[in-house]
């Protein structure tokens, strides 16, 4: 079998020339930089997790072994591989191996279930699936069986741990000489998953050149160098702990990556003390939890230099509590898997750090704040954020309809976020124009959940909205008009769960109503309807 055609992400020629000339795109690739670090930092610890401590040389050896094994099993360069692994060292080894073999990872979160994993596999035309045997009490081999039954094109399943009838990652090996050379730096290195504001998640193609630029530049803004110890506390497949600066930034710098098995203080604090962690990224609810726990903790957290908070809005009062509780530097991070990432700078005045979500990484990040008609608004006014730049995609993978909606004719990505830009260039996130729920950083599409509720025989209509939540920031509330006998809320929740979805997508709250009670005559948009229901919910509080 021959290689599959590499996926491309197309920037117009003049932009390619500009991004190269500016030194953003240097022709670096994942396998090339990982190989170089394995030489340069051979005996330095690269990855710590569970009982494993791999040096850079050992990580590279794992990557080469697994890469050779995957090709020996019949995968060919260009094949897409859905990877669903938790915060274990094998996650990093497997992803590095895929890069080494010119295979294309498609990142699923451990929380995803058959419906989502099936969608990723179908949409990416994946030929393989890699999971752990079990993670957080879930058996992924059962999911693999269902996946293969539904999608025989997923011909290979590889498992970390007890593989049952599948192939164990630990047992993979093969001849090293047919391993391919380094890929085209402008080819797509992997497919990341979008937050999915309309319906199912879109796949985000990121190239070697653009992604490596984003974390190389992030390192400089986040203070990451070879002496740093970066902790992955959020699920490692999230774009934030992967690239802002994330474990890839840390590996690029020759730093140490420490994988925390969970995001809470119980799991993370002892590891911070033991490994002398210097930097970690959290979502706002966790940052508050950490700040509260730090005061009572007996663990030595004094090594922490930078606490990054992002994924959802950190309001100024919460920012103050985080700073007071943890006593290290706060860095706000406002990013997206599609590209654009904003950071408050480590030397920004405290007021900006507490009250803004930072400014873009690059001088060539073009940020527009526009009104509903696409006209730029004055600094300080709230408008839609559009972005274009050297690490922001120009289109989703294989999704013409989404691309028509999500990009302007001149290639700006419509982020869906409403922001205010200050004269300093710092952005303040003021809400969003799209209907999703940002549940502690996990983005949930209202439409996707409505579709699953509507499939229930006792649901006549359903509208899912985000409502404020003291802990999560936002939670999901489903307004349901019963059809026939009213189902019990627990039954509807179980129904959504049973549709093969991540648990975080199950509505937190269900409110039955007789009618949506819209005063508008005729049809109103789902958006307006959700806005009305949300307003009604807030009035009733
Ligand atoms: C308000 N909203 C925010 C913030 C993201 C770094 C950090 C985060 C992500 C991420 C990421 C926010 N304040 N500080 O990929 O590299 C909301 C916005 C944004 C969406 C993107 C990274 N930080 N958000 O969260 O792809 O609505 O990426 O458009 O998961 O999260 O979500 P996602």
UniProtKB/TrEMBL annotation:
It comes from the Bacteria. Residues 448-523 form the AMP-binding enzyme C-terminal domain. This is 2,3-dihydroxybenzoate-AMP ligase. Pathway: Siderophore biosynthesis. Keywords: Ligase, Nucleotidyltransferase, Transferase. The lineage of its organism: Bacteria, Pseudomonadati, Pseudomonadota, Gammaproteobacteria, Lysobacterales. Its EC number is 2.7.7.58. GO terms for molecular function: ligase activity, forming carbon-sulfur bonds; nucleotidyltransferase activity. It comes from Luteimonas chenhongjianii. Residues 35-397 form the AMP-dependent synthetase/ligase domain.
């Amino acid at each position: 079998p021959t290689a599959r055609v590499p996926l491309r992400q197309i920037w117009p020629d003049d932009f390619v020339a500009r991004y190269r000339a500016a030194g953003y795109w240097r022709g670096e690739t994942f396998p090339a930089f990982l190989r170089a670090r394995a030489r340069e930092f051979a005996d330095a610890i690269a990855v710590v997790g569970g009982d494993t401590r791999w040096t850079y040389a050992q990580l590279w050896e794992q990557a080469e072994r697994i890469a050779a094994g995957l090709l020996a099993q019949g995968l060919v360069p260009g094949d897409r591989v859905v990877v669903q692994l938790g915060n274990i060292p094998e996650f990093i080894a497997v992803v590095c191996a895929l890069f080494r073999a010119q295979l294309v990872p498609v990142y699923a979160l451990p929380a995803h279930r058959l419906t989502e994993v099936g969608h990723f596999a179908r949409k990416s035309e994946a030929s393989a699936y890699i999971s752990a045997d079990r993670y957080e009490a879930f058996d992924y081999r059962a999911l693999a069986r269902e996946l293969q039954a539904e999608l025989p094109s997923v011909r290979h399943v590889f498992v970390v741990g007890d593989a049952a009838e599948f192939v164990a990652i630990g047992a993979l090996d093969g001849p090293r000489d047919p391993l391919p050379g380094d890929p085209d730096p402008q080819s797509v290195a992997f497919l990341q998953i979008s937050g999915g504001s309309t319906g199912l998640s879109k796949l985000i193609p990121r190239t070697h050149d653009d992604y490596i630029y984003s974390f190389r530049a992030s390192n400089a803004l986040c203070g990451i160098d070879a002496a740093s110890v970066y902790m992955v506390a959020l699920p490692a497949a999230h774009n934030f702990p992967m690239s802002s600066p994330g474990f890839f930034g840390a590996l690029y710098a020759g730093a140490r990556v420490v994988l925390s098995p969970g995001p809470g203080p119980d799991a993370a604090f002892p590891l911070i003390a033991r490994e002398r962690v210097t930097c970690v990224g959290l979502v706002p609810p966790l940052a508050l939890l950490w700040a509260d726990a730090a005061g009572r903790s007996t663990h030595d957290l004094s090594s922490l230099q930078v606490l990054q908070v992002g994924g959802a809005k950190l309001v100024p009062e919460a920012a103050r509590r985080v700073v007071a509780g943890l006593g290290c530097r706060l860095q706000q991070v406002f990013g997206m898997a599609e590209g654009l990432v904003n950071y408050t700078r480590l030397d920004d005045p405290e007021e900006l750090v507490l009250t803004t979500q930072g400014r873009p990484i690059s001088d060539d990040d073009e940020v527009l704040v526009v009104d509903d008609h696409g006209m730029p608004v004055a600094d300080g006014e709230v408008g839609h954020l559009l972005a274009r730049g050297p690490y922001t995609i120009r289109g989703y993978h294989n999704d013409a309809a989404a691309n028509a909606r999500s990009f302007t004719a001149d290639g700006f990505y419509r982020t869906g976020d409403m922001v205010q830009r200050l004269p300093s260039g710092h952005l303040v996130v003021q809400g969003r124009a799209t209907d999703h729920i940002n549940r502690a950083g996990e983005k949930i599409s209202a439409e996707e959940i409505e579709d699953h509720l509507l499939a229930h025989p006792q649901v006549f209509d359903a509208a899912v909205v985000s409502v404020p939540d003291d802990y999560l920031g936002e939670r999901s509330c489903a307004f349901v008009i019963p059809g026939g006998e009213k189902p019990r809320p627990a039954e509807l929740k179980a129904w959504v769960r049973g549709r093969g979805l991540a648990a975080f997508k199950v509505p937190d709250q269900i409110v039955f109503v007789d009618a949506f009670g819209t005063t508008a005559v005729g049809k109103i948009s789902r958006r307006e309807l959700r806005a009305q229901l949300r307003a009604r919910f807030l009035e009733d509080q």
